[in-house]
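Lecture notes, part 5. Sequence design as translation. It can be helpful to think of inverse folding as translation between two languages: the language of shapes and the language of residues. The source text, in structure tokens, appears below.
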């Protein structure tokens, strides 16, 4: 058999040389396109369903959210394990699939199943899928620092949430940009219970008044001089004074009662469950880059760095972006070690 192969190779030298060149080119291309990472991803193919049920005890979350979702996901094709976890106001359901299952095929099957189960959940509860990433997808982290003292933690967190995060999510291979640290700015209405009693106004009426007042509405058209004019009602809240002027009722004399009369309106931080401290020098706002499943970690990190360099020009004076964790250094050291061997 070996003699026949050698004889055929000698008779078809051109084809042998052509095949050899093809293998060399294909091997070189594959080597250059091989994803580089220092941490092998051995995670199972899994899809996470995250659901918020604010203010409810773990047992209520288990009975009304986690259990219906868990039982519904048992019928998803190729799902080998379904795990549910219930916390105060939160529910997590993990669906683990057989090895070799395509991640995005699995996510689409879970979404299909969610369409059937949503009607059995409490009103206002909307389950959502977790990012298409794994436990080793955390590839880069940065912090926003202002050593000049011109911007507080709320300003830094706003920069992260409304400027950096959306731009970084456009980088190829980035699944999610998670914000952490700082303070999330809120409109806060501190109601005086004594004034509620004095004006005989229930708390739910104030809540509904604020909801109705923060809304744009559309109307029909008016035709004047052969021209159509669109009618709109602009009602979005733009500042604290808009909140203070919201009417909630009238007194015995017919005088309007506004939010200003019964509550204190201010900006304040959202309740938080953690913070970020940088090198023991104080709190900062930070962002975590989560890589999409199966992507090249080194290319994703380089893309994030390039985007951050572009975004630095739009930061306020005194604000700096400090790299906290960068896996690319570990990847390059691992490659250098292989070259030395």
């Amino acid at each position: 058999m070996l003699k026949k192969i050698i004889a055929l190779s000698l008779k078809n030298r051109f084809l042998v040389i052509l095949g050899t060149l093809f293998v060399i080119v294909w091997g070189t291309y594959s080597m250059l396109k091989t994803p580089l990472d220092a941490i092998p991803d051995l995670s199972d193919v899994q899809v996470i369903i995250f659901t918020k049920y604010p203010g409810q005890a773990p047992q209520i979350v288990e009975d009304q959210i986690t259990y219906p979702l868990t039982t519904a996901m048992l019928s998803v094709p190729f799902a080998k394990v379904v795990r549910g976890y219930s916390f105060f106001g939160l529910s997590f359901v993990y669906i683990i699939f057989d090895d070799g299952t395509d991640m995005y095929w699995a996510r689409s099957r879970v979404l299909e199943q969610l369409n059937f189960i949503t009607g059995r959940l409490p009103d206002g509860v909307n389950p959502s899928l977790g990012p298409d990433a794994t436990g080793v997808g955390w590839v880069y982290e940065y912090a926003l620092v202002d050593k000049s003292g011109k911007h507080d933690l709320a300003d830094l967190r706003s920069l992260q949430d409304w400027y950096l995060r959306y731009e970084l999510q456009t980088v190829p291979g980035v699944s999610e940009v998670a914000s952490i640290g700082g303070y999330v700015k809120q409109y806060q209405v501190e109601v005086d219970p004594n004034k509620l009693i004095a004006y005989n106004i229930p708390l739910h009426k104030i809540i509904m008044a604020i909801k109705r007042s923060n809304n744009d509405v559309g109307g029909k058209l008016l035709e004047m001089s052969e021209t159509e004019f669109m009618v709109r009602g602009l009602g979005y809240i733009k500042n604290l004074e808009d909140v203070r002027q919201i009417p909630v009722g009238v007194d015995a004399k017919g005088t309007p009662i506004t939010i200003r009369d019964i509550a204190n309106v201010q900006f304040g931080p959202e309740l938080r469950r953690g913070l970020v401290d940088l090198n023991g020098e104080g709190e900062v706002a930070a962002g975590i880059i989560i890589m999409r499943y199966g992507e090249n970690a080194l290319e994703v990190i380089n893309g994030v760095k390039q985007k951050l360099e572009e975004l630095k020009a739009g930061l306020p004076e005194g604000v700096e972006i400090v790299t906290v964790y960068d896996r690319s250094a570990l990847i390059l050291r691992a490659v250098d070690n292989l070259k030395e061997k």
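The translated text above is only one of many valid answers, since several sequences can fold into similar shapes. The chain has a mean pLDDT of 88.
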